[in-house]
Amino acid sequence: RDIWAQTDFILEGILVTLALTVVTMLSGLVIGTLGAAARVHGTRWLSALVAAYVEVIRNTPLIVQLFLVFFGLPSAGIRLDAPTACASTSWRVSALIARVFCQACVRLGV
From residue 109, how far is each of 37, 42, 103, 105 by CA, in Å? Predict the structure, then answer.
C-alpha cells in the first residue's frame, strides 16, 4: 500500500488531533484556574476537596487513568467518542494547572 494515497485521511487525523488538543488544553486551563482559585480563596471544605482531587490525579499514572477511561467506561456502558477523549485528558491537565497556579498564588501572596 502506498502511504501517499492515504494523504486525505492522514491530514484529517492531524486536524482532529489538533482540535482535540486545543479543546483539552483550554478546558484544562479553565478548570485548573477555577480549581486554583478555590484552593487558595475557597472555604476550608472546598479547598480540601480541590487538594484531594489534585493529589489523586497527579499521583495516579497517566496510563492507569487512560486504561480506566478507555476500558472501564465502555464496560460500564458509556460510549467513547471525541468529547470523552477530551474529558479524559482535561482532568489531568486541570489538576496540573491547578497545582501550578495555586503555588504561584501562594508564592506571590495573592
Answer: 13, 15, 10, 6
pLDDT value at position 54? 94
User: 57: which 3 cell numbers?
Assistant: 490525579
What's the per-residue H, E or C state across 33-96?
HHHHHHHHHCCHHHHHHHHHHHHHHHCCCHHHHHHHHHHHHHHCCCCCCHHHHHHHHHHHHHHH
Q: At what angle do helices 82-108 and 44-58 cross, to 10 degrees?
A: 120
pTM for the structure as a whole: 0.81
* Spatial distance between the Cα atoms of 31 and 48, rounded to a whole number of angstroms: 16
Residues 79 and 16 sit within 8 Å (Cβ to Cβ): no
The pLDDT tens digits for 3-47 are 888 889 999 999 988 998 999 999 999 999 999 999 999 899 999
Q: How confident is the model at residue 1 (pLDDT cuts 50, 70, 90)?
A: low
